[in-house]
Structures are given as structure tokens and as C-alpha cells.
Specification:
By secondary structure, the chain is of the alpha/beta class. It has 2 domains: 153 residues, Nucleotidyltransferase, domain 5; 189 residues, Nucleotidyltransferase, domain 5, CATH 3.30.420. 39% of the residues lie in helices and 21% in strands. The chain contains 15 helices and 14 strands. Strands 5-4-3-2-1-6-8-7 form an 8-stranded mixed sheet, with helices on both faces. Strands 11-10-9-12-14-13 form a 6-stranded mixed sheet, with helices on both faces. It is globular.
């Protein structure tokens, strides 16, 4: 069975083709990226065993992006006809409280995805646009929605409710939902399989331009750092993370800032970019820190401290912690952040081996154990594969 995975962003589409054949685990035969939809710098890249493609293009809509991907699948011979694609797995960011499992997409599901768009305005609308495009171009395929929020369906009320009047939750669904669930689920399950530990208490750190931390017990999420929206939690590439809500009142009342200006600042001008004044890219910040740039050093320190503090809180929620996972673009590569985080968490038994930690970046392995010798608690660096997780969940639907 061939399964196409579609992961759409506001101006991009990432796609992967998996061939399950007679094997239980699917083999990724293609990955593609349409980057810069309706922008001047739009580019299409595609990698497969047959051919690698990279070209500038003028894709104006997500439908055109999906069409470009399918055309190149046919050109490379990875599929002989579109009928070979039996299923399409769609990443959808927000499923509210309703969707806790993969679901076949019909008119009702599409209406719900649109409704939940108010909770994820940058993601759900484009997720829906790509679903419509795929259903039009692949009408004979079975289309499955995989929700980022689904992994957090096991979080208890004491973890997901805010200290607001309860009516805000009952009438308006204001609560902690969590994000990056597909990534956390993938790396947590991989850690469980590798460690073979019974009922493990795991803290997973997905660190990148967007960052989230999740506490899981035996593969079930019990708490997470992101909230109603992806703005809550530790500071990120351009997002502030958690702040005192009264700061917003102060900005409007005393600095006369408009809500739209505050929203832009918290989402696009804060985080690593705002602290460092250099970039939201940790690689550039690290380079500057090596030259003694004080703001770059401060940005790394703040991120490491906030991640460690969140992990410490989740260890309390779990009543201990057996495994600490680093994943995501930053989590997988920034060995210096991993070391600083673990230095704060030695009381939990998390300590890195210097050589293993620094080598993990170039190891070529999808899982590296960077724990120091003779430590009971384990520290893993795991390469996330959200597309593979989506493909496997898509295959599971009968």
C-alpha cells in the first residue's frame, strides 16, 4: 500500500510517500517540499532514490502545490498512476477535544476543522485547503486526518484547566490543548521500544522554532507546556512563551500599544530573536556566543534554564523521571543546550557524556544515548519523524 503524507504550513507543503508493501513498517520512498507558496522566492525540492529535484517555481495556491508534487511523482516513476496512492494522511494542527484518534475525512470532519480554525488560525485553514485539493486531485484515495492535539487526549483536568471561571471552559472550550503531539508520540514510543523499561516516566523536549515539552507515563501524555495556542511554554524562535498576562494590560494602558501590535510582538518579534537581537536561528546565535556576544549568550542561557525548569516541574507531576528526550531541529543539533539543561537536572540523575553528546549531531543514528556512564536515568537524542508517524496512523484506519 502506498500512502502519501501531507503536512501543510501557511506558505508551504511538506509531503512524503511511504510504501508499506508486505512489510509492517513503511519505507519512505520520497520527500518533497514546496516552500514559499504565493511568494517571490517559491522553491520546489524533491528527494528520492530515483531522482533529486530542486527548482524555482511560481506556485500560488496549496492546490497548485499538491498538483506539482503529484506530477513529479509520476515523472520520476515512483508511481505509475494516481490510483496507486490508496491513502493520504493529512496533518491537522487542532482537533479540539473532539478528535483523539485518526479519522476518515468527510464533510462533518472538514466542518469541524474549519470551526477549530479559531484556535489555530495560522494552521487549520491551510490544512483544510490542502485537504480540499487532495480530495479533488485524488478522489479515489481514502483521506485520513491526524491531529497534533490528539496525543494530549489523556491529560487530566488538573493539568489542562486554567485558573479561569469554569464557564470559560464549559462554554468556550478554553483549556490547554498542546501541540507537536505527533512528534512527541513518535519519539516517546521509540524510546520505550529502545529502553525496554516497564512503565517509563518520560519527558520529551521538542525544541525548534516552535518548542514544546511533554510529560508521558508509559506512552500516555499527562501534561505539556503549550496551551490553548502554541504561544505558551518556553521561549521559542520568535515567540515569547509564557509571560505574566498583566504585561499585555501594561502595554495597552501605559505604552498605548494596539492589540494587533502586541500579538505581532509576542509571536514574531520575541523569543530567541528578541533576546539575542541577532536571529531566531540558534546556529547563528551560537556562533555569536562563541565570539563573546553577551545577548547571544543570554539567549542560550534563558532557553536552557526555562527548558530545565519545565522538565523539573514535569518530574514532579510524574513523581520522578526515567528518560529525557531531545528532538526537533534545535534539540537534535544544539549539544550545548542539551548539556546546560542536563546540568540543571543532575538531581534527577540526568547527566550527559561530553563525547557522546557532541558526537550525536554527526552520528547518523536516529537514536543516540548520550547518558554519562553509570547513570540510572537516560538521556536520548532522537530524530523525529512526524511523517512516518502520520503514515503509520493512516495505515491503521480500517
Amino acid at each position: 500500500m502506498k500512502i502519501l503524507v501531507i503536512n501543510s504550513g501557511s506558505s508551504s507543503i511538506k509531503a512524503s510517500l511511504f510504501d508499506f508493501g508486505k512489510m509492517k513498517e513503511g519505507v519512505k520512498t520520497m520527500s518533497a517540499h514546496v516552500d514559499g507558496i504565493n511568494l517571490a522566492h517559491c522553491k520546489f525540492t524533491m528527494k528520492s532514490e530515483r531522482k533529486n529535484t530542486g527548482l524555482k517555481t511560481k506556485v500560488k495556491t496549496h492546490e497548485q502545490g499538491v498538483k506539482l508534487i503529484l506530477e513529479n511523482l509520476l515523472k520520476t516513476g515512483l508511481i505509475k498512476n494516481l490510483g496507486e496512492i490508496k491513502r493520504v494522511g493529512h496533518r491537522v494542527v487542532h482537533g479540539g477535544e473532539k478528535y483523539k484518534n485518526p479519522v476518515k475525512i468527510d464533510a462533518k470532519v472538514m466542518a469541524d476543522i474549519k470551526k477549530f480554525g479559531s484556535l489555530a488560525p495560522l494552521h487549520n485553514p491551510v490544512n483544510l485547503e490542502s485537504i480540499r485539493a487532495c480530495k479533488k486531485l485524488l478522489p479515489k484515495s481514502k483521506h485520513i486526518a491526524i491531529f497534533d492535539t490528539a496525543y494530549y487526549g489523556t491529560i487530566p483536568q488538573e493539568a489542562y484547566l486554567y485558573g479561569l471561571p469554569l464557564e470559560m471552559y464549559k462554554k468556550h472550550n478554553i483549556r490547554r490543548y498542546g501541540f507537536h503531539g505527533t512528534s512527541h508520540k513518535y519519539v516517546v514510543n521509540k524510546a520505550i521500544k529502545y529502553s525496554k523499561k516497564k512503565n517509563p516516566k518520560i519527558i520529551s523536549c521538542h525544541l525548534g522554532n516552535g518548542s514544546s515539552i511533554t510529560a508521558s507515563f508509559n506512552g500516555k501524555a499527562i501534561d505539556t507546556s503549550m496551551g490553548l495556542t502554541p504561544l505558551e511554554g518556553v521561549l521559542m524562535g520568535t515567540r515569547s512563551g509564557t509571560i505574566d498576562p498583566a504585561i499585555i494590560f501594561h502595554l495597552t494602558e501605559n505604552l498605548k500599544m494596539k492589540i494587533s501590535e502586541i500579538k505581532a510582538m509576542l509571536n514574531n518579534e520575541s523569543g530567541l530573536l528578541g533576546i539575542s537581537g541577532i536571529s531566531s536561528d540558534m546556529r547563528k546565535i551560537y556562533e555569536a556566543s562563541l565570539k563573546g556576544d553577551k545577548r547571544a549568550i543570554l539567549a542560550i542561557e534563558i532557553l536552557s534554564y526555562q527548558v530545565a525548569k519545565c522538565c523539573g516541574g514535569f518530574a514532579a507531576a510524574l513523581n520522578g523521571a526515567d528518560i529525557l528526550i531531545f528532538t526537533g531541529g534545535l534539540g537534535e543539533k544544539a549539544f550545548y543546550v542539551r548539556k546546560k539543561v542536563c546540568d540543571y537536572l543532575t538531581f534527577l540523575g540526568f547527566k550527559t557524556d561530553k563525547r557522546k553528546n557532541e558526537k550525536a549531531v554527526k552520528s547518523g543514528l536516529d537514536l543516540a544515548d548520550i547518558s554519562a556512564p553509570r547513570t540510572k536515568s537516560r538521556v536520548f537524542v532522537i530524530e523525529t519523524d512526524e511523517e512516518k508517524q502520520i503514515a503509520e496512523e493512516t495505515k491503521s484506519i480500517k
